[in-house]
Amino acid sequence: GQSLEQPSEVTAVEGAIVQINCTYQTSGFYGLSWYQQHDGGAPTFLSYNGLDGLEETGRFSSFLSRSDSYGYLLLQELQMKDSASYFCAVFGSARQLTFGSGTQLTVLP
Amino acid sequence: DAGVIQSPRHEVTEMGQEVTLRCKPISGHDYLFWYRQTMMRGLELLIYFNNNVPIDDSGMPEDRFSAKMPNASFSTLKIQPSEPRDSAVYFCASSPDGAYEQYFGPGTRLTVT
Known about the structure:
The structure holds two protein chains of two kinds.
Chain A: E1 3-5, E2 9-13, E3 18-25, E4 29-37, E5 44-49, E6 53-57, E7 60-65, E8 70-75, E9 84-92, E10 97-99, E11 103-108
Parallel strand pairs in A: 2-11
Antiparallel strand pairs in A: 1-3, 3-8, 4-5, 4-9, 6-7, 7-8, 9-10, 9-11
Chain B: E1 5-7, E2 10-13, E3 19-24, E4 31-38, E5 42-50, E6 53-56, E7 65-71, E8 74-79, E9 88-95, E10 103-104, E11 108-112
Parallel strand pairs in B: 2-11
Antiparallel strand pairs in B: 1-3, 3-8, 4-5, 4-9, 5-6, 7-8, 9-10, 9-11
C-alpha cells in the first residue's frame, strides 16, 4: 500500500517563502507530483520529481530524496493568489497517482 | 483545446435514485481517471481506463458504482442506487500517457439527500 503525510495547514505572509513537506511510504515508486487546488476548483499540476534533487519552475520548486522517502514544495515570493491547497502525490508502478491529504496554505497580507 | 469537460456541474438527488456523471477527456489522451473527493477521505482514485479499457477498478467503493468508456471521447460514472454517503465532488482527469501529469475537469458536486 501507499501512505503520504503532509501538514494540514501552513500560514505565511505575502512575499515570504514557504516549504510544504511530504513523506511517503510506498511499494513501487516512480516519482512525486505536486498539485494545487483552489477552493471550489480542480487540482492542477505543478511539478514532478522522478529523480533526486531540485526542480525549479518559476516561483515554485520541488525537491525529492528517494533515500529518505521525502519531498517538499517550495513557494517563493508568496502572493495572495497562492492561497490554496497543495497535494503531494506518489506516482507508482501501477501508473496511478495516490494523493496526500493536502496542505491548506493561507497567505496573509 | 477546451480541456476536460464534465457534466453536470452540480447534481442534487434523493437517496435511491440513479445518478450518471459524464466526462469528455482531452482529445488524444489515452488515459482517463475518475476520482472522488471528500473532506473525510480526500482525493481517491475510483477507476481508470487506458484506450477505453478499464485497467484498475479497485477503488470503486461497491457494486452500486459502475463506469464505462464506450469510445475515446466519452465516459460515464453511474451510481445506482445512490446513498447520502456518496455525496462528494467527482473529478474526471485525462492524461496523454498515463503519467504523473493529469488534467482534471471542473468536477461534479453530487449531493444525495
